[in-house]
Amino acid sequence: MLNAIIHFSLKNRLLVVAASALLMVYGVFVISKLPVDVFPDLNRPTVTIFTEAEGLAPEEVEALVTWPLETAVNGSTGVERVRSASAIGLSIVWVEFGWDTNIYTARQIVAEKLQQAQETLPQDVRPVMGPISSIMGEIMLVGLTSEDPKINGMDLRTIAEWDIRNRILSISGISQVSVIGGELKQYQVLVDPLKLKNYGVTLHDVEATIEGSNINATGGFLLSDYQESLIRNVARVKTVEDLAKSPLPQDNGSPTPLTLDQVADIKLGGPLAKRGDASVNGQSAVILSIQKQPGADTIKLTEAVEAELASIQKTLPEGVKIHGEIFKQGTFIERAIKNVEEALRDGAILVAIVLFLFLLNFRTTFITLTAIPLSFVLTAIVFKYFGLSINTMTLGGLAVAIGELVDDAIVDVENVFRRLRENRHAEKPRNPLQVIFEASSEVRNSIVFATIIVVLVFIPLFAMGGIEGKIFLPLGIAYITSIVASLFVSLTLTPALCSYLLPNMKRMSDEHDGWLVRTIKGAQKRVLNFAFPHSRIVLTFVALVTISVMALVPFFGKEFLPQFNEGSVTINILTPPGTSLAESNRIGTIAENLIRQVPEASETGRRTGRAERDDHAEGVHSSEIEVELKESERSRADILADIRNRLDGIPGIAVNIGQPISHRIDHMMSGVRAQMAIKLFGTDLDVLRAKAEEIRQAMSEVEGVVDLSVEKQVLIPQVHVLFDREKAASYGLLSGEAAEYAELAMQGKAVGQVLDGQRTYDIVMRLSDAARNDVEAIKQIPVDTKDGNVVPLQAIATVQDAKGPNIINRENAQRRIVIQANVSDRDLVGVVQKVQAAIDSKVRLPQGYYVTYGGQFESQASAS
Question: What is the CB-side half-sphere exposure of residue 197 using CA atoms within 13 A?
Answer without folding.
Answer: 11
